[in-house]
Amino acid sequence: TQLLEQSPQFLSIQEGENLTVYCNSSSVFSSLQWYRQEPGEGPVLLVTVVTGGEVKKLKRLTFQFGDARKDSSLHITAAQPGDTGLYLCAGARPGTYKYIFGTGTRLKVLA
Amino acid sequence: GAVVSQHPSWVICKSGTSVKIECRSLDFQATTMFWYRQFPKQSLMLMATSNEGSKATYEQGVEKDKFLINHASLTLSTLTVTSAHPEDSSFYICSATRQGRHQGPQHFGDGTRLSIL
Known about the structure:
The complex is a heterodimer. Chain A is about 0% helix and about 55% strand. Chain A is an all-beta fold.
């Protein structure tokens, strides 16, 4: 059972456009992480959010954790070809330390 | 920074062979390591949690006799795919968290691509 649904599944945009990726669940998470994965490599951690309503910025990337800690979003401003990759959210249920990964969003930014 | 090494990175073998994959934390001690499986163009599916000095905890639907996990030291966990068949072909990825920081960052290896002929 996939607890974390990401949308959209696929996204192809032109360089310079903005985009938002959503990570939704009916479950509460004690913390949520976002990763980016390149083909043939392991995921690379982008950010961890732990407080409901928390917003974190990493250059052109803005991450938000929902007030109820059930959902999160990733917004990319002025996307660049280097942003191309598989974006994954991962949540840890309260009382556990296992992270369950979302369904993934495959982003392609065209030059 | 924290580094996790997986070996081998790619293995091709015949059906019926058992394959061992190693996951090492190179510059930190990891009480807990996680093993994931990833099919092409899909997300990571958690297979099991590997705990140093105790039995691994498997996720529902994962055969523990098929996927043997051993975590004999604070820096090494191994996953053995026993009597592998073509349907076991996949990308296997491990991750490790620093000792005492269970909800800290997971540090991922670069994965092992397993192809069973």
